[in-house]
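Try this one yourself first.
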């Protein structure tokens, strides 16, 4: 029979997993626009990346979601999901995707292939200038981060590819705001009516003061750490276990990757995949995404970032040449 201390510890762990899916209750640097109600809108003003070597004003994330039947050792456990980084995000070959690609050649495996295909999201930064979320507590630094899904990103990209756009939307004096509109389609949140403002708007004094005081984030800092050789072995081991329908094993994997809200176990991490295992969790920060992304059937590697120079026209031309 479990002791009272063990029961309390287990209840706290379950509570942590549940609250982890709800997000923090205090000031949140990530703006949770997915929480706005249907029919409402939020207005954002994107800012450049603090990394001058990044042509774009966003950083692309490629993640693979691994579903598990539950958590090993917990009889009342429900299905859980673990996010791991796709190695293509770092310009390397992803052994998991190499295996999944072959599944699309067999019609009976296509659905499974889509389940394990890489999921894209994009990290932006900027201001929230019109916020319908009454319970959203902004941090002291008003420069927020945005985790943008493919649907919204395509709207942003389409405007950049439009030859009528002559200035970067992130320009401090000639930039434009982005209005995010939430509706629904097929039971999912839909942002297809979102659009850029028609008129340029210079940053106001408060916004410029925030930029000068806090500086811009290097968006690359918010991508998951590149997994080392040992963590990559753990990732492939977890992938195989997930496909085989096994439960998530915290004793083997929680020091590397774990479901949102789960604390790392204190067991020996060397039980994972290698006698040299010493790493702590290398999971990516988790943020809800507004709708599922369909998997492509062919490789679509991320564009490499290069140094950007010159004015808005030069930068826009570089963006268009790489995104076209």
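Now uncover the answer:
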């Amino acid at each position: 029979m479990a002791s009272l201390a063990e029961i309390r510890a287990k209840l706290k762990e379950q509570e942590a997993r549940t609250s982890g899916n709800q997000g923090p209750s205090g000031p949140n640097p990530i703006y949770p626009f997915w929480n706005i109600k249907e029919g409402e809108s939020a207005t954002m003003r994107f800012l450049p990346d603090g990394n001058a070597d990044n042509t774009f004003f966003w950083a692309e994330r490629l993640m693979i979601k691994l579903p598990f039947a539950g958590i090993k050792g917990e009889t009342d456990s429900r299905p859980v999901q673990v996010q791991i980084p796709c190695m293509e995000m770092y310009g390397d070959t992803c052994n998991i995707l190499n295996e999944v690609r072959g599944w699309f050649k067999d019609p009976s495996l296509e659905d499974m292939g889509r389940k394990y295909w890489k999921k894209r999201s994009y990290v932006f930064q900027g201001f929230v200038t019109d916020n319908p979320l009454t319970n959203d507590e902004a941090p002291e630094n008003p420069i927020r981060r945005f985790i943008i899904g493919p649907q919204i990103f395509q709207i942003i990209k389409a405007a950049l590819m439009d030859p009528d756009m002559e200035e970067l939307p992130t320009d401090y004096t000639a930039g434009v705001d982005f209005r995010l509109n939430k509706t629904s389609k097929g039971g999912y949140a839909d942002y297809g009516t979102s659009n850029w403002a028609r008129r340029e708007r210079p940053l106001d004094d408060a916004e410029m003061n925030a930029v000068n005081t806090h500086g811009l984030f290097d968006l690359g800092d918010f991508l998951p750490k590149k997994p080392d050789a040992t963590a990559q072995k753990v990732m492939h081991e977890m992938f195989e276990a997930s496909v085989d329908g096994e439960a998530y094993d915290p004793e083997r994997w929680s020091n590397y990757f774990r479901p949102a809200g789960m604390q790392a176990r204190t067991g020996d991490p060397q039980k994972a995949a290698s006698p040299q295992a010493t790493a702590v969790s290398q999971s990516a920060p988790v943020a809800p995404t507004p709708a599922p992304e369909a998997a492509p059937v062919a490789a679509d590697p991320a564009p490499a970032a290069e140094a950007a120079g010159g004015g808005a026209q030069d930068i826009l031309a570089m963006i268009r040449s790489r995104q076209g």
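Discussion: The first helix runs from residue 4 to 20. The radius of gyration is 21 Å.
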